[in-house]
Design a protein that fits this description.
The protein has helices spanning 13-17, 39-50, 63-71, 82-85, and strands at 56-59, 117-123, 131-134, 150-153, 162-164, 167-170. With 172 residues, it is α+β, with helices and mostly antiparallel strands.
Length: 172
Amino acid sequence: PRPFEIPRHEVTQQEREAVMDHNPSQFKGGRLPVEGVSWDEAQTYLARLNEREDGYRYRLPAEAEREYAARAGISGRAYGELTGIAWYSGNSTGQTHHVGTREPNAWGLDDVLGNVWEWCQDPFDETSNRRVLRGGSWYSPARVLRFSRRFDLRPGMRTSSPGFLVVRERTK
């Protein structure tokens, strides 16, 4: 595998609006994670980033990469008490929150659980075109928020909670 860089948090609305002309998010705010994004729409965003030809290739994380980064070397369900590390149904007041406002994991990554589900590059299984989401969201119950939890949707389907991370790899 190639080395990759993963950001501290999901793509924010401000970051997305700098590249795309449409913000699908229900909850508006520059530092809020973009949500309501289909896998296909995430791919369009990535294609626009890749058009820059800035020495990097941008993509969604593989499912294993995302879990590896989220765990940051631990083997448990979470790296702390959910209330302090994640926005979920027990503390979100029914909406997303600014990225980076919960306690980060040991590698400094925020929002690896909760706030928005995050699209992964991988298909959910070998027999369908459904794609993997990881991490849980602002409306997920506590039992869903664990590193190994998987969810799936069709690539073109938009629901209220998916967002995404952008991984980058050096091309030169």
